[in-house]
Amino acid sequence: MDAVIAAGGKGTRLGELTREIPKCLIAVAGRPLLSLQLEELSRSGIRKVWLLTGHLGWLVEEYIRDNRQPVEVELIREEAPLGTGGGLASLAGRIEEPFVFLYGDLVLSLDLGRMWAFHDRSGAAVTMLAHPSSHPGDSDLILEGEGERVLGISRKSQVRRDWLRNLANAGLYILSPDLPASIERGARLDFEKEILPPYIEAGTTFAYRTTEFVKDMGTPERLAEAGEAIGTGAAEARRLSNRQRAIFLDRDGTINEFVGLVSRPEQLRLLGGAAAAIRRINRSKYLCFVVSNQPAAARNLCDVAGIETIHRKLETLLGQDGAFLDDIRFCPHHPDRGYPEENPALKIDCACRKPKPGMLLELAERYNINLAESYMIGDTSVDVMTAANAGTKSILVASGMKEEPPKYDARPDSRASDLGEAVGAILDGNV
Ligand SMILES: [Zn+2]
Who contacts 237 (Cβ-Cβ below 8 Å, separation ≥6)? Predict the structure, then answer.
């Protein structure tokens, strides 16, 4: 596989820093970003990188010439600024396989092999790298349909009236080799605004979701954060080729107030301290997932899309507090038939309804999670039993349903008053 790096941009938001040095040569953890990128791409098996240069391009060329690189680099100088996407036209006819396209200001630690496998399976023309953002209100968010198909992009500049999933566009793509030939040569084009839309409209664009470290260093603050994550090894630890640890959270009574079955977004209200607790997980070595039984759909109190709307509200509320979920899984099923109004298609004995471990096992497979070093936090014996069945440790919180008597005879590894206390106990090494 080849990769193309768009490194011609001016980086005006970095101010003085990019007046005399191109953005891709700015030091991150003591090394030029470009050198980190080339090493990362090489680790994922990429052999050749096409480097599109522009602003202060001669400095980039000099750097490539004077330093040994882990991959073959071919330089293409843009004589006039071509925007974020116009430069791709020069690759028409020169690349025969799908290729990675990324921006020169992206700090990343990413197992591209997984994204590649996803691209291959989906048959996409364009695969977008997507991840939850700690600041979704200030990010372009991907609107996703059935089967991870991209339906559109909600721009950060737009006024948002709906609840949105926290799925931000990371700025890295796998593209069909036919794409460069469709771009007008010499035209100045914005990739997201002018090149991507027809592929979204054609239904051939998919979002690949990851929990790995990807950050654009467009501002001095982000540059500092990225430097720290690279320097301390936190970014490398998140690489999905390394085993992950996770904290799985029940939803109702653990994150939001327990009010019985939630079938409408208005019924979802965060518990005090829940967003702060999730923010602590986000800054730790643990991934954070919600795994929730939602039989409201099986009982026809709402449909599966209704549950997804409720989750969009959950993610939006958390995002307003700088917290995010790495992913969400829910079981819309229920095994007992024979109620009036029920949805027979969802009245099945599935493998995902807790206390079965299906949702945790699937997430463990998807994100390479070591369950024995992971935790489940919930407010009922169902969650404790799920943890036992999946092989994680468990913490029972007292913030939700008062289960009397408990449905399952299962002992939690620990108890806590609420999510904040439970997360504190894990991160302080007390469970
Ligand atoms: Zn299920």
Answer: 285
Distance 134 CA to ligand 1 centre (A): 29
The gap from C-alpha 280 to its chain's centroid, in whole angstroms, comes to 17
3-state SS, 36-100, equals HHHHHHHHCCCCEEEEEECCCHHHHHHHHHHCCCCCEEEEEECCCCCCCCHHHHHHCCCCCCCEE
User: How far apart (Å, rounded) are the C-alpha atoms in residues 133 and 150?
Assistant: 17
Q: Ligand 1 center to residue 203 CA distance, Å? A: 28
Q: Are 262 and 388 in contact (CB under 8 A)?
A: no
Q: What is the pLDDT of residues 114-137, one digit of tens each?
A: 999 999 999 999 999 999 999 999
User: Of 45, 43, 24, which is closest to residue 34 (Cα–Cα)?
Assistant: 24
Active site residue 250: yes
**Which distant-in-sequence residues (6+ apart) come within 8 Å of 344 by Cβ?**
337
One-letter amino acid identity for 151?
Answer: L
**Threshold 0.85, pTM exceeds:** yes
Listed in sequence order, the residues at least 6 apart from 91 whose beta carbon sits closer than 8 Å to its beta carbon are 4, 50, 76, 99, 180
Residue 351 Cα, ligand 1 centroid: separation in angstroms?
6
Point out which residues pair with 407 in neighbouring strands: none
Determine how many CB atoms are found less than 10 A away from the CB of residue 343.
18
CA–CA separation, 374 vs 393, rounded Å?
A: 6
Active site (annotated) includes residue 349: no
CA of 355 to the centre of ligand 1 (A): 10
What 3-state DSSP class applies to 313? helix
**In angstroms, what is the span from residue 298 Cα to ligand 1's centroid?**
10
Ligand 1 centroid distance, CA of 371 (Å) = 20
The catalytic position among 105, 250, 326, 379 is 250
Question: Which of 105, 252, 379, 418 is an active site residue?
Answer: 252
pLDDT tens digits for 184-235? 999 999 999 999 999 999 999 999 999 999 998 878 888 999 999 999 999 9
d(CA 394, CA 14): 45
